[in-house]
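# nightly structure sweep
# worker-07 picked up a monomer target from the shared queue
# config: single-sequence mode, recycle default, output format = structure tokens
# input follows
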Amino acid sequence: MDNIKILGHRGNQGLATENSYEAIMSCSNIPEIDGTEFDIRPTKDDKIVIMHNATVNGTTNAKGRIQDLTLEELQKLRFTTQFVDQLSQKGYNIFNKDKYFFEQYRNLGKKSSQIATFDEVMQNYSPNKHMLIELKGKIAEYSNRKQTYFEDNIIEILKKYDYQNRDLTLEGYNFDALFRIKNKLPDLKVIALINKNGNLTPLDMDFDGVSLEYVLLNEKVVQKVIDKNMMLYSWDDKKPMSHYNKINNIINKFQSEIETGELPLYVINDFPEKARQYIKK
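# output follows
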């Protein structure tokens, strides 16, 4: 089903380490992938880098909080693949009798990538491919000054690269930060990010959509998304087969709404090239 958009979770992890420049640009360059999701954080010198965790521990060859390291220091580091992730991924996929995901994930350990900046990705990423940007940082994780600089820099970069003429959405758990940014950029789409431990109150808030961990998907939730004229993003944490089964159930029940565009549906997966094979055309 072509109206379902497939996004690379932290880039295309079948090609390169998560959130690396190579993984993200792969989603821009490969026609079969509709876009990417990635995470942004502020550095010590108030630059913005693409990184999921608050620290570089485990995901690079160093230790320390990102907000305590300068951009120059961060760009000297190299991404690594955590052994515990490899083991958990192997166990899951052997159980599901699908070795593709583990083999692809394991191969990442053989590759080396630098930490990318938000600016360079915006500069080189195709404006015609979807971009879901996650604003990282729990409430009060940063000082008031750093939080303000972070939000202002996001706004500056989005303006610099003509966000209004891009297929672009901002998401996060810090709803106040999202609404502050939207207040300054009213035409920017912002969506609430909700994991399995969260509640669904954002469905009643003034968001353009929601990004739900797949376990939260059910007929009642999807119908409410449609009634509220929202976008729906669905993501998983390295459990692709369970996620695909959930998505296929949605397709069976809401096929008409998906085909007509009444339900804009985005599937976020670590291996976007493979995902289409498991989701009904």
